[in-house]
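hey m, so remember when u said the tokens were messed up on ur end? i reran from scratch. heres the input so u can diff it against urs
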Amino acid sequence: MPEKKQGQVILMSEQQMKTMPILAMRDVCVLPGMLVHLDVSREITKRAIEEAMAEDGSIFLTLQRDESIETPSFHDLYEIGVIAKIKQEIKVKDDVLRVMISTKERGNLLSLNQTKPFLKGEVVPYEWGDEELRPGALEKEAMCRNLKDVYTIYLNENPRASRSDLEKIQGMKDLGKLTDLIAMHINMGFDKRQEILECLDLELRYEMVAGILTDEVNFSRIREGYRRKVKEEVDKNQKEYFLREQMKVIRNELGDGASAEEYQEKYKEQLEQLSCSEEVYQKIAEEIKRLDAIPTSSSEHIVERTYIENLLALPWDKASIDRNDIVHAEQILEEDHYGLKKVKERILESLAVRCLTDKSESPILCLVGPPGTGKTSIARSVARALDKEYVRICLGGVRDEAEIRGHRRTYVGALPGRFVEGLKKAKVRNPLMLLDEIDKVGSDYKGDCASALLEILDPEQNRNFVDHYIELPVDLSDVLFICTANTTETIPRPLLDRMELISIAGYTENERFHIGKDYLIPKQLEKNGLQKKNLQIGEKTEITLEVSGAEELVRCEMKREAEHRFLGRVAMPLPQTIEKRAFTLDGERIELTVVVFAGITHILVPASLWGENAAKKAEHAARVWAKELPPVFGLLLFDEQEKSLKPLVAVEDVSLIWERGCGSGTSAVGAYLAAREKKDVTVSLKQPGGVMRATASYQNGAVTKIEITGSVAIVAEGTAYL
């Protein structure tokens, strides 16, 4: 230990010596009294931080003499560094650790105890000697004031310099801390900062920092003088030309080839060709003029351009010519839809009124019915019949009123509402807009969507509809609105009063047969490249099916029972194994019969096993046992006394489905009973979708044949994929 000398900075006693992790920094030098953030990726550094955090967080920071050395030795490090404490660590990437460190005081590295897996050594802090021999109070005060004055001049000469700690610096009275803090804010090399760190004499450290500050101020003034001379020598026209050419190069590099002037010229040309009212014309012209005053580097420039482009894209006075031909409309409706006689008549009546009055105003039609009854396709057919552009606006789950009225332009990412976007998409002011699932709009703290729709669907108000983003009246009176809903119970009464309801109750069995035969089958034939001769519907025929449990297609014999009912008989594949298998559920061991087919595995669960909660228990068991079962398996809740079957089919990572009827499940039960009784078995099983019968043959100790039969409804013959 060095001897204590009066008037100098000395090392503290050996009792203050600490063994702590060492953080060797390559190109960063810090001073005491700082809060710094470091990103570290070197393994020895990360291990040192982990070791420090495992103890009290103390760590010694010192600069590395040669930054290329991965594992430095004692001679590769500066002996004088900073004793610090780790406040926080965050893993930002797989190999990068971000730490927040508070530096405390200078310290001296006496030795290294280890270099791997991290640096660790003996460190002792510094302290002042005799207090009376340190710089006097007046001297220190003068030094502090001078440093603050010079630092203020430095900041004025360097506008880009950090001012984060200016207030703190102005209030400091400790000369040592002041010199360290100012030194951290001056732009200098890490080697120069290391010299300040190693300068233990307070007066010498003051002189070093003051000298560096003065040099930086003089350098800034000289540089500013040269800059002014160059600026004065450059001709104004040449300067503008140079800057414009430079901007063009930058835009080309960024992929934004057009300049602000080019955009303005383009917008002006589009405005001159735009058919709109005087109010709209003046508004767009003002926005184009305003665009010229916004710097291209500003984010507001992009916002303003987007707004202008939206205004120019709207079809203010552009309309399509409707085909007011009722005969043609009737042909289209009959061509696209089977049945629905009353629905078609009411739609044709509404179209006839439009033709007779030669007015676009007409009642808002609302098609109400369950899913799958053709509500959406009817609206599309009406658009085709009238030669109108078709726009579908899905309102299901919409709760934000801004989706209807648009966002205010002051918001980040503001957009027009769905109706204005619909007009942009249609490119005409009189399209047919389908408001799909209007019964599912909601309201919350973001506004009431149903109330916003009142204005849009009211013929007396919608000719001056104001979107919050557009901020101009948009005429929606020429739009033909058709709404769809599954029910009227959730539609607010004021909104319901503005619509004329057309109920679509559904289809009869006969209508479904003809829809499948005359509409669906031709579409599927065309889609799959087949011909009509490939399908034949007769009294008795065979169709090819793909069923669960079978690796190959199976033949199904179909015999007509009624106009649209058939008796189906299918020769099912044989099981690969029928065995007992133990399962564990919630700590309970259960032994069940497992019937394994090529494509699916079925587990027979007695209905009495789980009682009233059988369905929930089965779904829970399916999720638990999925890890030990094939990707596709079924749980069969089988009541042997009642002869009933409830099939649950599980598909890996897709779904759990309670089937209405399961052919492979019926086969599994038949095979199980035949194997158990060791004889031929015929069993009829009641299932949610009806009764299905299984006939299993048993010979020579094995199940040799399985057939299932049941009454089914079909709409096509050929190859079906179930």
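this time it looks ok to me. The chain has five domains: 9-131, 135-231, 240-313, 326-503, 569-721. if urs says something different then somethings off w ur setup not the seq
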